[in-house]
Design a protein that fits this description.
Blueprint (H helix, E strand, L loop, with lengths): L1 E5 L6 H10 L3 E6 L2 H8 L11 H12 L3 E5 L5 H9 L18 E4 L6 H4 L3 H25 L4 E7 L14 E6 L2 E6 L7 H20 L2 E7 L2 E2 L25 H10 L4 E4 L5 E6 H13 L6 E7 L2 E4 H14 L6 E4 L17 H4 L9 H13 L26
Parallel strand pairs: 1-2, 1-4, 2-3, 4-5, 5-8, 8-12, 9-11, 10-14
Antiparallel strand pairs: 6-7, 11-13
Helix pairs in contact: 1-9, 4-6, 6-7, 8-10, 8-12, 10-12
Bound molecules: sulfoquinovose-uridine-C1,5'-diphosphate.
Amino acid sequence: MHVLILGGDGYLGWPTAMSFSKRGYQVTVVDNYFRRNACIELDAGILYPVPTLIERAKIWYELTGKEIKIVIGDLTDPEVMRSFFTGGVEYQFAIHPTFAGIPQTVVHYAEQPSAPYSLINHKYANTTIINNLLVTNNLMFAVRDFSRDTHVIKLGTMGEYGTPNIDIEEGWIEIEHKGRTGHFLFPRQAGSIYHTTKIMDTDLLWFGVRTWDLKITDLMQGPVYGLETEESIYDPRLRTIFNYDEIFGTVLNRFIVQAIISHPLSVYGKGGQTRGYLNIMDTLQCIHKAASTPAKRGELRIFNQIMETFNVNQLAQKVKKVGADLGYPVEIKHFENPRFEAEEHYYNPTYQGLVELGVEPHFLTAEVLEGIFRVVAVYRDNIRKDLIFRGVNWLRDEKTTIQR
Ligand code: USQ
């Protein structure tokens, strides 16, 4: 089975590549280094240096004898996308440089993933919209034109649903209206330009499924935490990219870093914002289960990819407790919320589908938190306090700039 991973250099992409490779899949990874370049451009902190994709693939080969083929390319260019299906692809790293064949599965992570990035100003909003929608559209047309049996696993986000005052279903809802019923995508109402592009992705792919019988799984994922996976423990150089700054850091990873440098945990506003969370190891399980039980032709299959829900205050309390046990004096502080979002709200999502496929959740225990604390603490001297807040604000206009 050949798996093509779009965006294979990112927080989830590289761990996904290793985990498929370890399980005997032929793996090809493509990335344009967007994340790394954005981190340099915006001076966003990476906790530790990460080798290039080619270096990572070489380290992986030396350790396991398994090949991960690497392409550095921009998937907003349709010809780059199509080359993976026509055989025109040029690998920058491969042990066997012959064409790997048309992928049976494509995992699509090749998106600008940050809500704050998408709201720095109109230019960053444009970059987010152009990148995310063009890559999805190029993929959809490549699959339509060359391989309709290829299963596309697309990373969506729970943020597509927003925080509605009704229970959130897994993607679909039956609506009764004036005595008639219909089956529709669950109503979506995103809280950022980034999250809005994910809604648009889903709509594009739903069109493709209806019109050309494509096979799509759309995974509505919540914020992910953690950095160690089964494969990264072979060698620390294989660890994923880890951000703790305001732009690319997700909340729990940020809190652990803050605790380690005695920065007050940055709870935005009242801290009642509830989301569904998952360990990075569970992201990998979910992708594997989705790949091994593909959607059918003409099916847009949607799962809510979360394992448990917390509000921000609960996360802060957990980090404070584990931090104190490890000897870190942790303070929790409520900062003015730079985002426009509900700070107290109803939140009751369904998330049974992936567990029914066999995913076994790793819950957010004190032990799991402690494990992340211990790895992050090794790099304590690399942590920069000036990156915790960068001045991105949903409601400010042109003056919204990155503080340098
Ligand atoms: N938050 C704080 N303090 C912080 C950082 C965040 O209180 O220092 C709050 C935010 O206001 C928000 C919640 O924590 O209410 C989650 O924020 P986040 O930055 O961890 O996550 P978010 O911006 O929603 O985006 C992340 C990923 C994105 C993914 C999404 C899933 O970056 O790629 O799609 O999680 S979800 O949140 O379910 O939409």
